[in-house]
Amino acid sequence: MSGPPSLSSFQSDKPLLDHLTIDLILAILNHTFLNPVFAWLIPLAYRAQTFQYHHPPFYLSAAYAAFVTVLWIAKQINRRIAYGAKREFDWMEEVVVITGGASGLGLLIAEVYGMRGVTVAVLDVREPEGGEARNVEFYKCDVGDEKQVEAVAKEIERDLGTPTVLINNAAIVNGKRILDLSAEEIETNFKTNLLSSFYTIKQFLPGMLKLNRGSIITISSVLSSIAPAQLSDYAASKAALKSLHSSLTAELADKPGIKTLLVTPGQLSTPLFYGVKTPSNFFAPVLEPVDVAKEIIAAIDGGLGGHISMPVYSRWIGVMEILPASIQKFLRWASGADRAMAGFKGRKTLDQEGNETW
């Protein structure tokens, strides 16, 4: 049995310049000039140099610091009103269930929690890549099959206890034009990407309600808001997941101990989209799974609900819907979204080539 890797083993070996993105620039700004603590250091530095209160450098920098502080407070108030108070999260009392956890993002989250000593159950039709990991139990299951999910849920309850964290991560990509998709491929896509979430929620939510604590994480995609060519079935299923999350959140509004979290990432460097190239690494960088996993794990550990959307462009993609149709068409052309799948190969091709993946 191989031990779980450290987080550093999942870091990208991309060229240094590939890490220079608009997301990196904004992250630096958020930790400096847009950070209230840093902003207040500027007027304090002026005061230390004996600047008077009426001197422009002092009162302008103080006004800026006050503005940044107000924005920060407004952000905290908005989060509290929108998503409620945090729930308590105790590693030793949690049982985490991850669908599609045999590779990619799901496997990474499973191994990180396993390293921490958290009990983890992975549901997948594929064997875990790299072998089993500490504290991670694998259950072979087609999550698109309701009967299999029901049977495995009973096994998990018996073996590990009542699940308190559910991460619906399972997904497949066909990458074909509509007329090239078979009825079986379309059906399998919706069973795996969408219906599986209904099945797992129906099995594990009752236990969370009894305990009055839990977290349900829905892994959707930025493609739920913009559906490129050759991704009709995938984008449709991811859009439906957003609606599922929204409705579920509304139904649990009177259950503050149960948090719902929606994740809408851009393209990840996992086998799922092998062969796809983004048109601009600066504005639309390919995400490393470790970066997305850190955000998800931090939200779960913090007992938070809400919405994680990354990289930066994915947070504003919804604005396209209110723009004139002609501008929308231009932006789709300029972004290359409808040409991005031209080089798509996918997991099957990667497996056939014998490349090492995780």
TrEMBL record:
Transmembrane segments: 20-46, 58-74, 95-115
GO MF annotations, alphabetized: all-trans-retinol dehydrogenase (NADP+) activity
UniProt KW keywords: Lipid metabolism, Membrane, NADP, Oxidoreductase, Transmembrane, Transmembrane helix
Entry-linked InterPro entries: NAD(P)-bd_dom_sf, SDR_fam
Pfam families given in the database record: adh_short
GO cellular component annotations of the record: membrane
Main location: membrane
Mode of membrane association: Multi-pass membrane protein
Cellular localization per UniProt: Membrane
Function: Catalyzes the reduction of all-trans-retinal to all-trans-retinol in the presence of NADPH.
Family label: Belongs to the short-chain dehydrogenases/reductases (SDR) family.
Name by which UniProt lists this protein: Short-chain dehydrogenase/reductase 3
Species annotation: Choiromyces venosus 120613-1
